[in-house]
């Protein structure tokens, strides 16, 4: 991978809606070259998708609960954690799944309409899987920063403090 390709990926990761002409100027390539690179990255599944970061707390119509669940599992011979991870990420409630180091093996991020819905997911779907030994559920109370974007609307006082 060339330095220009890495630079393009970093720019797209930071701002996926940046126009081709701006990308071309920033990387010093033509718009056609940038377009071709992006298409090739999409074809090779280097770029998996584009998404918007939305502050749902400012939208009155939607109330969701997000939970992070630490999961301890027994890995299976020959496939390790991959088989149980695949079974977990196929549930529609699962928004993210990570293999972790430390006390727990997997970290699962899920969304539901209520704490009850998340509790039902854990008790009926997640904890009933053969390889799952234990779970610990953490509920998200407030989002401060996500994917590098700060969610706080703070009107800071930028005046210089004057003291006698």
Summarize the structure.
The chain has 164 residues and is an alpha+beta fold. Helix content is 32%, strand content 21%.
List the helices and strands and how they pair.
Layout: H1 3-14, H2 20-27, H3 31-43, E1 65-73, H4 82-89, E2 94-99, E3 106-112, H5 115-126, E4 132-139, E5 145-146, E6 149-150
Antiparallel strand pairs: 1-3, 1-4, 2-3, 5-6
Helix pairs in contact: 2-3
Task: Walk me through what this model shows.
The chain is α+β, with helices and mostly antiparallel strands. The chain folds into two domains: 3-43, Arc Repressor Mutant, subunit A; 56-141, Lrp/AsnC effector binding domain/regulation of amino acid metabolism (RAM) domain (Alpha-Beta Plaits, 2-Layer Sandwich), CATH 3.30.70. The protein contains five helices and six strands. The chain has helices at residues 3-14, 20-27, 31-43, 82-89, 115-126; strands spanning 65-73, 94-99, 106-112, 132-139, 145-146, 149-150. Strands 2-3-1-4 form a four-stranded antiparallel β-sheet. Helix 2 (20-27) crosses helix 3. The longest helix has 13 residues, at 31-43.
Q: Strand percentage, roughly? A: 15-25%
Report low-confidence residues grouped into runs of 5 or more.
none
**Annotated CATH topology of the largest domain:** Alpha-Beta Plaits
Distance between the termini: 60 Å
What is the CATH architecture term of the largest domain? 2-Layer Sandwich
């Amino acid at each position: 991978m060339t330095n220009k390709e890495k630079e393009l990926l970093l720019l797209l990761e930071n701002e996926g809606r940046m126009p081709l002409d701006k990308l071309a100027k920033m990387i010093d390539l033509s718009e056609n070259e940038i377009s071709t690179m992006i298409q090739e990255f999409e074809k090779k599944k280097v770029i998996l998708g584009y998404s918007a970061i939305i502050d749902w707390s400012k939208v009155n119509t939607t109330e969701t609960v997000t939970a992070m669940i630490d999961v301890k599992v027994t890995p299976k011979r020959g496939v390790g954690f991959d088989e149980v991870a695949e079974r977990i990420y196929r549930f529609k409630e699962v928004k993210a799944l990570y293999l972790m180091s430390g006390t727990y093996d997997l970290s699962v991020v899920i969304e539901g309409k209520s704490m009850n819905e998340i509790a039902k997911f854990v008790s009926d779907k997640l904890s009933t899987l053969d390889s799952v030994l234990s779970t610990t559920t953490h509920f998200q109370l407030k989002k401060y920063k996500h994917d590098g974007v700060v969610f706080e609307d703070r009107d800071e006082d930028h005046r210089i403090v004057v003291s006698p």
